[in-house]
Design a protein that fits this description.
The complex is a heterodimer of chains A (463) and B (1100). In chain A, 68% of the residues lie in helices and 0% in strands. Chain A has helices at 29-41, 47-73, 88-99, 101-112, 118-143, 170-203, 207-216, 224-257, 269-295, 304-335, 338-349, 353-365, 373-376, 379-406, 421-444, 450-456. Classes of the chains: A mainly alpha (463), B alpha/beta (1100). Chains A and B meet through helix 2, helix 6 and helix 11 of A and helix 21, helix 25, strand 31, helix 28 and helix 29 of B.
Chain lengths: 463, 1100
């Protein structure tokens, strides 16, 4: 590759009076374009891509088969019981929705706050958001007992149903919240893609690529007027998305907070869930981008500084989450309610104590390593830590959902929940779906926002 | 019902061929009106319309079931009193092991769907038990045999009745020629007078034939004990309702045996805390029983120790010992208290001894009762026929096998349940010709030359005698579904009379009836179900036996960790194994262990500790070369050093539920009968449990004890704590409170705000204070505290405090909960404008935990069974369950031999602020205007959120297609029954209740179909619904009257009266859900000197 010269410039060092460069390697505009487009334009992707795709596509296929099995046999193929009516299905749902938070946060909130470093990572993060929400949306869709009636959840004014949904139910709010979030995120992502798609269209050599990129670039000309409108629209969408970042997980947390289950019935859930979502989302972005920048030669555009910034957010949200864990215990004790304080004691010392300790170690203890600069700037170490964070965040949902449900009010109903192989298969399968979509994205679409990166690129000699 | 004429053509399905005329009509119907009757044209006259509709109705009826008259003809005019789809009730009776229970059977369109007790008979009073309830399921069991079969060589082949009759005729001819010299008959105990009469006739015709009776679980010891004590065979009857002091010695009077239903009723009657006095019950037993749970004091003793206890008791009573019950160790105090109580209540108490104790202990107990003047007052006797013990009879048969050329086995299953030392199966092979007649093929029939399928009790005429000797008539509810014949008819053939069942039964009744058996008298008798006044008359008895007991083992000795005693107990689900193919019973949790689909080696925590055994570990028991493997279940309160194993499991040839080894369907549980010998039918000493490394997961419907320490702590806090799940206290305290404050609370208690139907009280704020602040007086404060946290004195102090402030909760309710409670006024619940407010009350003082409500609910509401694996997953579907809690603290005191058990039936509480309703996204669970929490199955999509949010966890989800209902998407080969078999099962379903398919939530509806039916009837008759007119299925079956349903808004209703009692409380009231179901606190009557050891406080 052409631009491997200045990789070793350390842009993580703050020099007073000087902005740290966000594009390295002295890339000029055309080199930036070439670097990004090269991924899609090269005749065949690296061998690693094929291997990764083969594995993840196989897992996706398994996911599909398991969903069919679920449909044919019933929800009983999972380990859900009475009283643990929700288990892996909703754990996975909340987990994936949480992952889906980073993208919009990066693209919208950081945009409004003029955080220029977002440009290197926003495209991939947004794509990841969309794929995560697809995975998330799958689970509530298939977890219901009579899947063929899933559309009854939507307010469709038909004679057949003759009834509106029940608007007091948080599950219905979920449908609206996740639906809105997905729509707006998709729009936002696609809007941002348009200029880059046009670039790809202009560079495309094969007929099919020309047609496809041409169709999706919506006749973008790159005129000043087009840019003007584009920027206004982008700003509006960013403003739209910003509250959604907070609302989605707030509403998802209402599924729990609004109910009567000890361990769920807590007012801290909305901020706690949002913090956790951002935490896990950023960890997932880091997990994906480190290998992607290696694989597709994007190290100059997605620099160590980008990664370090994300790690700083991860440590901040880790502290928030840790704080929330503590406050939950305080409130449980302070409330004086037996069942509430028991629920929390049970988390730590009960049947599922191991899940609780996995959660605490992965979410609160391990991210503290990011206080060390050497660790937070070392790509492969941060991937390992971020994988731990994602494990921890999955267990956080497991602890909240399964531990609380397995022991609520009447001890007579307490049941130890045990997942089945289908539960594990579908969890792994959803990762397969997510990775498949992400690999396809990397292969066919501009992984980095070309036009935006050019804005933050240092002035080149040529210009 | 006419006799069966289908002879050799045994139809698997009662198909009635329509005659030509009807067929023509049907064709016309098809051709003219292909879709629906709504499309009838104008050209049809009203007369023609009626004809056509009548014909189609008749045809519909002919497909699935049979009417009383089998001549199918078009109903041009509907026969009088026949309403398609309406319930019709018939009286009948079903015998279980020699005692008949008078019953009423609900039929709809000619098929029985629900069994209840006959309210006119004192043995039932409308109640029944689990076995009776489950008979509906085995009537329609697709695994029932549908034709005779014959063994040729080593293989079995299907046969026909015709072939069977030919073969049987040869037997009869042979027997006639040698007067039955080589003929033997083996039957199960059966109270049927007709059977007895035919037996006499049989023995008259074949004077040299031998007749034997055998049952694996019999009252041999009781009979021999009476024989020994009184010198004649008599049957004891206890008036438990008049009993002030009751001592049960290894006797579970409440769960098994022919008197259980009546005993439950009378027992609860004597223990009603709202009466002036309440009985006191002492239970001495090894295995935890229902009486043990209900008793005020319980002591666990090994079976071998019981004789010495009885001896000590006898000595004490004889000496009129006035040992103060405050001296000595706990066991001595216990005995002293019993003696003191018994002596103080002479001629008003009873000591009952159980079946498993040897005759000499029975005799000693009779002497004690004699000394207490109970004979004739509390205990009366009726005459019974003399017989040898069952095991001895079977032994005689086995010894004589070689001499018989023909053996007739009428029902029963000796190959499976005979004591191992008799080697019955080997002996059977010596008989040339063996004929088995029974309900279905089993282990025994497989080894017999011939098998012929007998009719189900609901399919055939029969009779029986209830425990008090009343002559009961059993009429068939449906023609035999599988072309079977009744055993009576078979016997009649055997004596070459060939009468049909009706003739036999009517002939027998003629001798009992006081007047001429005219058709009218007969119809009336059949209608009643029993012949009033035919109960056996009492006989006077006098003690003839004065031989003192010479016990081997001291009752005061503690088990030292040596060898164990093995106790064989009849299964409290499948009895002796005969109900092994009943899914309802297999899935019914045991009262105490909560184990389903299995039997286990039940041991106490101390036994487990000293023998180093773990919960669910597989252990081996090896005796006489027979070896069985069983999982361990640890049960606090079980006698130390003993192992209880349940009989009736490990069937190898019974069906798709209970196991069929030939077809690769595994047995349920292990057959422990292999370890029994004819000398040791109930217990065996010197047994070792050999541990293995295998472990299994037991299908426990609840974990009363086997949780981790954190879980046990949770149970303790919830049963103590601020708002205990089960509240209650002492009778003395309760009475004192009632004297001071009155037995009822203010009516406004039952009122919701803005209640328009509430008269006499303005919906004013002055009542709000009472509404919000009144809390159930917590009668026994010790229950409100975590176990063992304070000394007894302080507890008493607090109880005293509480009595001073009773009614107000300020001193007891911590701030957090008081807040919760006051917050109720923020959401006073929905408004009701109608005159009906359905509600239920559950009296924890009366509930003995007999499980009958679970099966009754299952039968009424088509509740499916789920199977062992699903129970392990925690997915059982019962709409009503009986929660059991162990209050003891076995961790701090691992050697505690006693544990306090408490039962609490829980079904949907029908909350006014129902937490399930607000969270359902599709409004599938909604509130009715009468306060019911309705479940709309076809609206439900199964998000299961309601289940999560229900704090009572009474909602049940169809994770799989348990009912095998029609589902949109499914694997094509799903389900264990084929279409025809499914239809057969469908016949037993209640047509008023939807069958729930996979993916929907379900729960108790307060039997809404019964409410609606009664409303329709009342409206048609232009009258209001009576105060107690509607009953639920669980209420009907409850032998103690613990469950009461009704209209809370009607002051005359029992539920209103119960809700107003000071004992009434709402479960989890701190949540503000305002459940319509309320519980009445559990009141116990401990001996003052033993109060410390009363179950509720055994931890101090």
């Amino acid at each position: 590759m052409a631009t491997t010269v200045e990789h070793h410039v350390d842009n993580t060092i703050e020099r007073p009076g000087e902005r740290a460069p966000l594009v390295l390697g002295g890339l000029n505009y055309s080199e930036i374009t070439r670097t990004v487009c090269d991924v899609a334009e090269r005749p065949r992707p690296p061998r690693a891509w094929y291997i990764a795709f083969a594995i993840s596509f196989a897992l996706t296929a398994m996911f599909g088969v398991l969903i069919m099995h679920l449909f044919l046999k019933g929800v009983g193929v999972w380990g859900n019981t009475s009283p643990v009516y929700w288990a892996f299905d909703i754990v996975n749902f909340v987990f994936w929705v949480g992952i889906g938070h980073a993208g919009t946060l990066i693209s919208a909130i950081l945009f409004l706050f003029r955080q220029n470093w977002r440009t290197g990572i926003n495209r991939a993060a947004e794509a990841m958001t969309i794929f995560a929400v697809i995975c998330a949306g799958t689970f509530p869709g298939i977890h219901i007992g009579r899947v063929w009636a899933f559309y009854w959840l939507f307010p469709i004014p038909t004679e057949h149903l003759a009834l509106w949904p029940q608007f007091r139910s948080p599950l219905l709010w979920d449908v609206f919240a996740v639906g809105t979030y997905f729509t707006v995120s998709l729009l936002f992502w696609y809007m941002g893609l348009v200029p880059d798609l046009a670039t790809m269209r202009d560079r495309a050599k094969s007929k099919w690529a020309k047609i496809a990129y041409g169709a999706f670039s919506l006749g973008w000309t790159g005129s000043a007027r087009a840019w003007h409108r584009y920027e206004i629209a982008y700003m509006i969408l960013a403003a739209f998305s910003t509250p959604l970042v907070l609302s989605v997980h707030t509403i998802v947390s209402f599924d729990f907070a609004v109910s009567q289950v000890p361990g769920w019935h807590t007012t801290i859930f909305p901020p706690y869930f949002v913090a956790g979502a951002i935490f896990s989302g950023f960890a997932m972005v880091v997990t994906l981008l480190v290998p992607a920048r290696e694989l597709f030669g994007l190290k100059d555009l997605i620099t160590i500084r980008h990664l370090e910034n994300m790690n700083k957010i991860i440590i901040a949200t880790s502290l928030m989450v840790g704080c929330a864990y503590g406050i939950e215990f305080f409130i449980a004790w302070y409330s004086g309610v037996d069942s509430e304080s028991y629920a929390f004691k049970n988390r730590v010392f009960g049947w599922y104590y191991w899940a609780y300790w996995i959660m605490v170690i992965c979410n609160v203890v391990i991210p503290q390593l990011f206080w060390f600069k050497s660790i937070r700037t070392s790509p492969w170490l941060m991937v390992i830590i971020c994988i731990f964070v994602n494990i921890g965040m999955w267990f956080e949902r497991f602890v909240i959902i399964v531990t609380s449900l397995s022991r609520d009010y009447l001890p007579s109903s307490w049941t130890y929940y045990q997942p089945t192989w289908v539960d594990f298969g579908m969890l792994i399968g959803s990762f397969g779906l997510f990775t498949t979509l992400f690999l396809l994205f990397c292969r066919f679409l501009p992984t980095v926002a070309i036009s935006e990166v050019k804005n933050v690129a240092p002035k080149t000699h040529h210009s | 019902m006419p006799s069966l004429k289908n002879g050799s053509t045994i139809a698997q399905w009662p198909v009635v061929e329509p005659n030509d005329e009807i067929r023509d009509l049907y064709v016309t119907l098809e051709r003219e009106f292909p879709q629906a009757a709504a499309e009838f044209g104008d050209g049809i006259s009203r007369r023609r319309w009626l004809q056509l509709m009548g014909a189609s109705l008749a045809l519909t009826g002919a497909v699935g079931c049979r009417y009383q008259v089998e001549n199918i003809a078009p109903f041009v005019f509907r026969p009088k009193d026949r309403h398609p789809g309406a319930y019709v009730r018939y009286a009948t009776a079903i015998d279980l092991d020699g005692v008949a229970l008078p019953l009423l059977v609900n039929t709809v369109d000619g098929r029985p769907i629900k069994i209840d007790g006959n309210p006119d008979h004192p043995d039932s009073r409308g109640a029944s038990d689990i076995f009776t309830q489950s008979r509906i399921l085995d009537l329609y069991d697709p695994d029932r045999s549908n034709k005779p079969s014959v063994k040729s060589g080593s293989t079995r082949a299907d046969s026909t009745w015709q072939e069977f009759e030919t073969a049987f005729q040869e037997v009869i001819d042979g027997a006639t020629s040698n007067q039955g010299g080589t003929l033997a008959v083996l039957t199960q105990p059966n109270s049927s007078p007709s059977l007895q009469r035919l037996k006499q006739r049989f023995l008259e015709k074949y004077p040299n034939a031998k007749w034997f009776e055998y049952s694996a679980i019999g009252n041999d010891n009781e009979l021999l004990g009476c024989q020994r004590a009184f010198g004649k065979p008599v049957r004891p009857h206890f008036a438990f309702d008049k009993c002030k002091i009751l001592v049960t010695i290894d006797a579970d009077i409440l769960s098994l045996g022919g008197t259980a239903v009546r005993a439950n009723h009378e027992f609860a009657d004597a223990r009603n805390p709202d009466k002036d006095s309440m009985s006191r019950v002492y239970a001495i037993e090894s295995q935890f029983s229902l009486v043990g749970v209900s008793a005020d004091h319980r002591m666990a003793l090994a079976p071998s120790q019981i004789a010495s206890f009885v001896a000590a008791l006898e000595t004490g009573i004889a000496a009129e010992a006035k040992t103060p019950s405050t001296v000595g160790d706990e066991k001595e105090k216990f005995l002293a208290a019993i003696i003191e109580d018994l002596l103080a209540n002479k001629s008003g108490c009873a000591v009952v001894c159980g079946w498993s104790q040897p005759p000499e202990v029975h005799a000693a107990v009779w002497r004690i009762n004699q000394a207490l003047d109970n004979l004739g007052s509390i205990i009366t006797f009726t005459e019974t026929h003399q017989r040898e013990p069952y095991a001895a009879q079977l032994q005689k048969l086995v010894v004589g096998m070689q001499g018989f050329s023909t053996l007739l086995i009428l029902d029963g299953n000796p190959v499976y349940d005979a004591p191992a030392d008799l080697k019955f199966s080997d002996a059977l092979k010596k008989v040339k010709n063996t004929i088995y007649v029974g309900l279905t093929e089993n282990e025994t029939s497989r080894e017999c030359t011939w098998f012929a399928n007998a009719s189900h009790p609901l399919e055939a005429w029969s009779d029986g005698r209830s425990f008090d000797g009343t002559h009961c008539i059993a009429q068939p509810m449906i023609a035999p579904l599988y072309g079977s014949r009744s055993i009576l008819e078979f016997l009649s053939t055997a004596i070459s009379e060939k009468k049909n069942g009706l003739e036999i039964v009517r002939e027998t009744a003629t001798a009992v009836l006081s007047k001429e058996n005219s058709d009218n008298v007969w119809a009336e008798t059949v209608h009643m179900g029993f012949i009033a006044g035919s109960a056996a008359s009492t006989v006077d008895v006098a003690i003839v036996d004065t031989l003192r007991l010479t016990p081997l083992k001291d009752w005061k000795s503690n088990w030292d960790g040596g060898k164990l005693e093995l106790i064989f107990a009849p299964s409290r689900q499948v009895f002796d194994g005969r109900f092994a193919n009943s899914g309802w019973l297999q899935e019914l949790p045991d009262f105490i262990t909560k184990l389903t689909w299995d039997n286990a080696a039940v041991i106490s925590p101390k036994t487990a500790r000293l023998k180093n055994l773990k919960q669910s570990q597989i252990v081996k028991v090896e005796l006489d070369g027979n070896q069985i493997e069983l999982p361990v279940h640890i049960q606090p309160g079980h006698a130390n050093g003993t192992v209880t194993v349940a009989l009736g499991y490990g069937r190898t040839f019974v069906g798709r539920v209970g196991g069929n080894v030939e077809k690769g369907i595994p047995s349920v549980g292990a057959d422990v009968g292999k370890l029994r010998t004819s000398a040791q039918m109930y217990s065996r000493p010197d047994v070792e449990l050999v541990e293995t490394s295998k472990r299994v997961r037991l299908a426990l419907s609840q974990d009363p004890f086997t949780l981790d320490e954190m879980g046990r702590e949770g149970i303790r806090t919830r049963l103590g704590g601020n708002s205990p799940l089960i509240r209650g206290g002492n009778f003395a305290d309760y009475k004192e409170y009632v004297t001071q404050h009155g037995p009822l609370v203010d009516e406004s208690e039952l009122k919701t705000e803005h209640d328009p139907d509430w008269h006499g009280h303005a919906p004013a704020t002055e009542h709000n204070e009472t509404t919000n602040n009144r809390q159930l007086p917590v009668i026994n404060a010790s229950l409100r505290r975590p176990a063992g946290s304070e000394s007894h004195d302080e507890t008493a102090q607090e109880a005293d405090d509480h009595r001073d402030h009773a009614g107000g909760h300020d001193t007891h309710w911590p701030q957090g909960l008081a807040l919760h409670f006051e917050n109720k006024s923020l959401n006073p619940g929905p408004k009701y404008s109608g005159t009906h407010k359905w509600a239920m009350s559950v009296d924890l003082s009366k509930c003995t935990g007999c499980n009958a409500c679970i099966i009754a609910c299952q039968a009424e509401n088509n509740v499916p069974i789920v199977g062992k694996d699903q129970v392990i997953r925690g997915r059982e579907m019962h709409w009503i369950r009986i929660d059991a809690y162990v209050i003891d603290d076995p961790v701090n005191d691992p050697d505690a031999e006693n544990a306090d058990f408490k039962f609490q039936p829980v079904m949907c509480q029908h909350c006014e602020n129902a937490p399930c309703e607000t969270v359902c996204p599709v409004a599938a669970t909604v509130h009715s205007s009468e306060g019911l929490n309705d479940m709309v199955y076809n609206r439900c999509i199964g998000t299961r959120y309601c289940g999560n949010n229900c704090p009572y966890k009474v909602r049940r989800f169809n994770y799989l297609n348990y009912s095998e209902a029609v589902t949109l998407i499914k694997y094509p080969t799903e389900g264990i029954y084929n279409e025809q078999e499914k239809q057969m099962r469908g016949l037993g379903m209640n047509p008023e209740v939807t069958i729930r398919s996979r993916g929907v939530m379900e729960k108790c509806t307060y039997c809404v179909q019964r409410i609606q039916n009664t409303k329709i009837i009342a409206r048609n008759e232009h009258r209001p619904i009576g105060p107690n007119e509607i009953t639920t299925a669980c209420q009907d079956v409850c032998p103690t009257g613990a469950l009461v349903f009704g209209n809370m808004a009607d002051r005359e209703s029992d539920v209103h009266k119960n809700h107003r009692k000071v004992r009434a409380y709402q479960l989890l009231d701190q949540l503000g859900n305002l459940p319509r179901t309320r519980y009445l606190a559990r009141v116990r009557n401990p001996h003052p000197a033993l109060e410390k050891h009363a179950p509720s406080e055994s931890h101090t």
